[in-house]
Amino acid sequence: MGNPEQRPVQVGLTLLAVLLMALPLLAACDGDSGTAPECDSEPEVMTTADGVQFVRTPNACFQNLSGFPYEARYLEYRWPAPGLRG
User: Would you kindly state where each structural domain of the chain is located, as residue ranges?
Assistant: First the structure.
């Protein structure tokens, strides 16, 4: 599994990659397209019990996206912060 000291870097890079992949979806979530109100508001920054900050995009923001007929599928992370999904 590699060097345990590299795991935080690898997880951080994975989370960054997920965020970068989600940016086009977030850009498509605007108030003019009839999206849910929570898609137009500032994201809530949450913190895990271990002190890791994260933002979770509401599922409503992924509804009715043209050209994106896929259902949400998530991977639940157990390390470094249980409860994170990507």
Answer: 1-86
